[in-house]
Amino acid sequence: MTVETSTRVSPLSAWQDRLARLPAGLRVRELPFLTQLTLRVEPGGAAAKAVEAALDTALPGPVRAESSGDVTVVWLGPDEWLLVAPDGRRHELLTRLRTAIGEEFATVTDVSAQRTTLALSGPLVRTVLAHGCAIDLDPRVTPVGACPTTLLARAPVTLVVRAEGASAVWLLVRSSFASYLATWLLDACTEYRGGAG
């Protein structure tokens, strides 16, 4: 009897060579298989306070993201957050949060397979994203820690600003849209090839 083990394949595994050929002013790499947990909890309640103590960070307010160690907490809605952590942290984080919540009313759900993450960095990030995103990425409007959920080239994304001037961002995108978004990024960079940036 043959036992088959599942092999994880990232949504953009076939794209790495193409994404590496972007202009010098824009670096794109996929961060596959990140642990992603959706937390639903009443803000300010006992369960929320227990979660904050367990994470050693406050749950961020509207359109904000906060990091504590290697866990980033992204606001998604009035009572919903996404916790993003390195691969391999799923079980430990689920256990820690569910233990902290105890009998209080809250839910923690593993959604790691829903999305992949594109890490963009470099001086061309804001310029390229402006081709397909209506969000103003000026640092006065979207400073470090901003996390608007928006459309990028008609693909739904959550954009997490990780460095000043939006020179480093994460794009959290549904796995089914990842190839489309990679194609769009390659096309949007066409005019910047040849030494620009």
Automatic annotation (TrEMBL):
Coiled coil: none annotated. InterPro entries: SoxG, TrmE/GcvT-like. This is Sarcosine oxidase subunit gamma family protein.
